[in-house]
Specification:
Layout lengths: L3 E8 L6 H14 L4 E7 L11 H4 L3 E2 L5 E2 L2 H9 L8 E3 H13 L10 H20 L3 E6 L9 H13 L4 E8 L12 H12 L6 E6 L5 H10 L8 E5 L7 H7 L2 H8 L11 H12 L4 E8 L3 E2 L2 E2 L5 H13 L3 E8 L1 H5 L12 E4 L8 H13 L4 E4 L1 H13 L7 E2 L9 E5 L1 H8 L8 E9 L4 H6 L3 E8 L1 E3 L4 H7 L1 E7 L4 E7 L5 E4 L14 H13 L1
Parallel strand pairs: 1-6, 1-7, 2-5, 2-6, 7-8, 8-9, 10-13, 10-14, 14-15, 15-23, 16-17
Antiparallel strand pairs: 3-4, 11-12, 17-20, 18-19, 18-21, 21-22, 22-23
Pfam families: CTP_synth_N, GATase
Protein name: CTP synthase
Pathway: Pyrimidine metabolism; CTP biosynthesis via de novo pathway; CTP from UDP: step 2/2
Length: 544
């Protein structure tokens, strides 16, 4: 089958749900047996998302092949239950960098290289190569930001050119917000009308409008939008109200015939066969949310942005907890705790007694580190189920060295290079990168193998002896302290044998105390919850 392309473009404001819409459309097609993949286009000049603060742009999602990408790639993987690779991720910086490198190597054979057409042609080339690599029948491309942003013009031009080349192979979906001003109490269509006309100015007519808003879209507004935004019928206006869970969205879209309408627009046969795996998962999720609950504290530092909580910094952790909780037929209640609160008021750490489990997610920098160590110490001493992810594993090792081995000045080289006991150190290659200010794309990134110790808790959870997990870090466990740690009760139960790197530590005589150098949350899927998160939730329920 010839690849069909669906562009998902945003109107009015960012963060309205383009990524979830993209993933949901993909899930619809996958449910019907199509081979689906997705691409994210980010308009920033950064080559990748790796150098950005999580508060600036949300979570950095790491792919299997080690690309540092936008968090929407994580949504694609979770909904499509497949790996998305670096070739599926485009940024303005990456595209320009490629064109300039080609010009320097005489790829253009002496031509005058210009922004138009060469940048849009590079975008098209990357989209088509990504589709070819994974043999996608349906490739869905999300254009980040909104239609009216200056930096998106060249990506929209690429989409327009693709449509011009093959009208039956390309479709456009506009995701736009319909606000309900509190002083009016009425859903307003004008912002979406404006977004549609702005898209028209780029030479693109939306085939469908996904109408996002707090409530369902009524018939008069469907008719109004269809008429004033150039759509043929009101059926092409799809209502997408707020819902309790994003995983319900594929069914909401399909119920409004979006799948059949897209098939008609792209001139492909609407396959009647439909798998029910996703439906079964959603049903299980709904049942879980009506019964018991489990309370999980997440102690970290990328939460605050002004007066607001930015949980997007840890979106993969959030989803992994949900997957594991629903698998255990319970609903998770997650509480965000800024670790600096414990530094200001140490006695406050005792509040952790009200929770069933504790997670310390990844992070960088010294801010709040002592508060995190206080929380880890409480979990270790009070049998509170604990899962430390990367940063959380490193600080768990530091805490153990300080308060069990008696190495009071133990630390990680990231925070105190003069410590006499560097429990976490840096390998020579990474040390050179830091010294040369070479930060972008230089961490230990992507999937690495790990051998598990037979009989360990994590071995029983995984059910296999060798695993592969994704990494994003510069610093490693210092093997000089390994023997003393294990003798005192913190066992090394997972190792990358190729480089003799510690990957997992596990506390003996504790209900569940596990630290991983990798990021297991990146591989958790709704249909396949990650075993370590499943283990944490089970331990939390046992405590409860």
């Amino acid at each position: 089958m010839k690849t069909k392309y669906i562009f998902v473009i945003g109107g009015v404001l960012s963060g309205v749900g383009k990524g979830v819409t993209t993933a949901s459309i993909g899930r619809m097609f996958k449910n019907h047996g199509y081979h689906v993949s997705a691409i994210k286009i980010d308009p920033y000049i950064n080559v990748d998302a790796g150098t950005m603060n999580p508060v600036e742009h949300g979570e950095v999602f790491v792919t299997e092949d080690g690309d540092e990408t936008d968090q929407d790639i994580g949504n694609y993987e979770r909904f499509l239950d497949t790996n998305i690779y670096s070739i599926n991720y485009l940024t303005t910086g990456r595209v320009y960098q490629s064109v300039i490198e080609k010009e320097r190597s005489m790829y253009y054979k002496g031509k005058c290289v210009e922004v138009v057409p060469h940048i849009p042609l590079e975008v098209i080339d990357r989209i088509e190569k990504a589709a070819q690599k994974v043999r996608a029948q349906i490739m869905i491309i999300e254009v980040g930001g909104t239609v009216g942003e200056y930096q998106n013009i060249l990506f929209l031009e690429a989409a327009r050119m693709m449509k011009l080349r093959a009208p039956d192979d390309v479709s456009f979906v506009l995701v736009s917000f319909l606000p309900v001003p509190a002083h009016l109490g009425e859903m307003k269509t004008k912002p979406t009308q404006h977004a549609s006309r702005t898209l028209n100015a780029s030479g693109i007519q939306a085939d469908f409008i996904i109408a996002r808003g707090p409530h369902s879209l009524d018939k008069p507004r469907r008719q109004k939008l269809a008429l004033l935004c150039g759509l043929r019928t009101e059926d092409e206006i799809i209502s997408a109200p707020d819902v309790p869970s994003i995983y319900e969205i594929p069914a909401i879209l399909e119920k409004q015939n979006l799948f059949k309408l897209l098939c008609q627009r792209l001139k492909i046969k609407s396959q009647s066969v439909r798998t029910r795996h996703w439906d079964s998962f959603v049903l299980k999720m709904r049942k879980a949310t009506t019964g018991r609950s489990v309370k999980i504290a997440v102690v970290g530092k990328y939460f605050g942005t002004g007066d607001y909580i930015l949980s997007d910094s840890y979106i993969s952790v959030i989803e992994a907890v949900k997957h594991a909780s629903w698998h255990n037929n319970v609903t998770p209640i997650m509480t965000w705790i800024d670790s600096e609160e414990y530094e200001k008021t140490p006695a406050k750490v005792k509040e952790l007694s009200q929770y069933d489990g504790l997670i310390v997610p990844g992070g960088f920098g010294t801010r709040g580190v002592e508060g995190i160590i206080m929380a880890i110490k409480y979990a270790r001493e009070n049998a509170l189920p604990y899962l430390g992810l990367c940063y959380g594993m490193q600080l768990a090792s530091v805490e153990f060295a300080r308060h069990v081995l008696g190495l009071e000045k133990a630390h990680t080289i990231e925070f105190n290079s003069k410590s006499p006991d560097l429990i976490i150190h840096i390998n020579p290659l990474q040390a050179k990168n830091v010294a040369d200010n070479h930060y972008g794309g230089t961490m230990r990134l992507g999937a690495y193998d790990c051998d598990l110790v037979t009989g360990a808790k994590v071995h029983k959870l995984y059910g296999v002896e060798k695993i592969s997990e994704r990494h994003r870090h510069r610093y490693e466990f210092n093997n000089q302290y390994r023997q003393a740690m294990e003798k005192a009760g913190l066992r090394v139960v997972g190792v990358n044998k190729k480089a003799d790197l510690v990957e997992i530590v596990e506390l003996v005589d504790h209900p569940f105390f596990v630290g991983t150098q990798f990021h297991p949350e990146l591989k958790s899927r709704p249909l396949r919850p990650h075993p370590l998160f499943v283990g944490l939730i089970k331990a939390g329920l046992n405590k409860k």
